[in-house]
Design a protein that fits this description.
Helix content is 67%, strand content 0%. It has eight helices and no strands. Helix 4 runs antiparallel to helix 7 and helix 5 packs antiparallel against helix 6.
């Protein structure tokens, strides 16, 4: 039987804002910044191998902006999820590191966006900008690992074990006992 602290970490602060029990919005929202920032790095690298890189450089800059906006939406919901985690627990410590890394990455990408905007979009992406994006993605990967640990190891904002087990109970559709072999 899960403890009261475990159950607290699984329940939403507000289902309307953070997603219903067992189906949080935060993991859905993080796909926007991750996808945008990975694609921006692909565009950055590609800008060094094509004849006319301006469209890739410009596209990368705007993908970074989309990623920052998506990260702010994911952070808002993630911050609300943080309130459900009991203080002083390994899950809370992990969540705080996860949040800090995400805020650093979002700040780095925000700075990178303004750096690119000031530099203009003519030519290939500069080596410093490319390095900032690559380093930011590496940190984002570490943070993503910690986010996975929160969900899959600590069960933060996922259904309790009894509810999860319902998904693995066979049901017979033809009226036969599902446990009986044919």
């Amino acid at each position: 039987m899960p403890s009261e602290q475990q159950l607290q970490a699984k329940r939403p602060v507000s289902a309307a804002l953070t997603g219903p029990y067992g189906h949080p919005f935060h993991p859905i929202l993080v796909t926007v910044p991750i996808g945008a920032w990975v694609t921006s790095l692909v565009f950055d690298v590609a800008s060094h191998v094509v004849h006319d890189p301006d469209f890739l450089t410009r596209g990368s800059m705007w993908l970074i902006a989309v990623g920052v906006l998506g990260a702010l939406a994911a952070a808002t919901v993630g911050f609300l999820d943080l309130f459900a985690i009991p203080p002083g627990t390994p899950a809370m410590r992990t969540a705080l590191v996860h949040m800090t890394l995400n805020l650093l990455v979002t700040g780095a990408y925000t700075g990178g966006f303004f750096w690119r905007r000031a530099a203009g979009t003519a030519g290939s992406v500069g080596a410093g900008m490319l390095a900032l994006s690559a380093a930011s993605l590496l940190v984002l990967g570490v943070s993503g690992f910690l986010g996975g640990k929160l969900a899959y190891r600590y069960g933060v904002r996922v259904a309790d074990e009894a509810t999860q087990a319902d998904g693995y109970v066979r049901t017979g559709t033809d009226g036969e006992d599902p446990g009986r072999s044919r």
